[in-house]
Task: inverse folding
């Protein structure tokens, strides 16, 4: 059985004090026998204080990005080793804001994924189509192509450390959550792309989560969809109460599906 996963992507939000208090509140709200992987992804400068705030809790620490290079002359970049050094065990790769706003290429995303996994980090690989791509009937082709490119150099054994996040670009930060049926279809498409790249057994074992304007009110119907193993949450992860409600919904809803 796939263990539910829920991640809070804080993006470029919080400050030192609010990052610490948000992390404390989330850590306090999750019990020792929590039945899901709960991961918070603060901005780089707050990784260490958040690591301290969640120490001893079931909440894990993740980074929002990493360099595709090991070290050296890369001004402004942060390496996988540095992330591990401050206590991060997860990293997000291929987020749509990095693909579309910052302009990361498929090749760079593939390098970052290889670097993360090769360095002992676990990765949330984000894929998803734009509104125009969906309207043109290309959503599934786009998702399959993103997976083919990112996973070309990733062997089957490393896939234990990968969570795929289906994040339709038009749903991120817009207040529009995908319809459960559309999310379910995209998740099936992701598993069939994984089966084509690896095999059906591996495809059924990889966790695939949904992201895009998830709030407690919409989560229940999304998490009840067969094959949805939790969520990656942006805006609602900045409010401890909402994020904890989503964590509970993932644990209950996913376990029941
Ligand atoms: C995200 O950034 O991964 C995300 C899902 O954001 P939001 O929940 O705000 O749409």
Result:
């Amino acid at each position: 059985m796939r263990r539910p996963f829920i991640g809070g992507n804080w993006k470029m939000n919080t400050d030192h004090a609010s990052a610490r208090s948000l992390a404390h509140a989330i850590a306090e709200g999750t019990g020792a026998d929590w039945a899901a992987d709960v991961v918070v992804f603060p901005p780089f400068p707050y990784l260490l204080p958040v690591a301290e705030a969640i120490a001893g809790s079931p909440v894990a620490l993740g980074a929002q990005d990493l360099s595709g290079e090991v070290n050296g002359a890369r001004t402004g970049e942060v390496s996988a080793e540095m992330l591990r050094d401050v206590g991060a065990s997860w990293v997000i790769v291929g987020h749509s804001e990095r693909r579309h706003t910052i302009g990361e290429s498929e090749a760079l995303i593939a390098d970052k994924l290889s670097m993360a996994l090769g360095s002992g980090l676990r990765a949330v690989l984000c894929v998803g189509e734009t509104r125009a791509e969906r309207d043109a009937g290309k959503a599934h082709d786009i998702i399959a192509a993103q997976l083919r490119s990112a996973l070309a150099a990733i062997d089957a054994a490393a896939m234990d450390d990968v969570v795929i996040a289906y994040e339709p670009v038009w749903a991120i930060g817009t207040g529009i959550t995908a319809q459960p049926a559309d999310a379910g279809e995209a998740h099936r498409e992701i598993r069939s792309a994984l089966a084509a790249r690896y095999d059906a057994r591996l495809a059924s074992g990889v966790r695939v989560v949904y992201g895009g304007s998830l709030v407690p009110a919409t989560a229940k119907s999304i998490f009840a969809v067969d094959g949805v193993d939790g969520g990656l949450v942006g805006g609602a992860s900045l409010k401890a109460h909402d994020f904890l409600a989503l964590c509970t919904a993932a644990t209950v809803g996913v376990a029941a599906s």
Remarks:
- The longest strand covers residues 122-127.
- Residues 5-28+35-67+79-241 form a domain with the TIM Barrel fold (CATH 3.20.20.70).
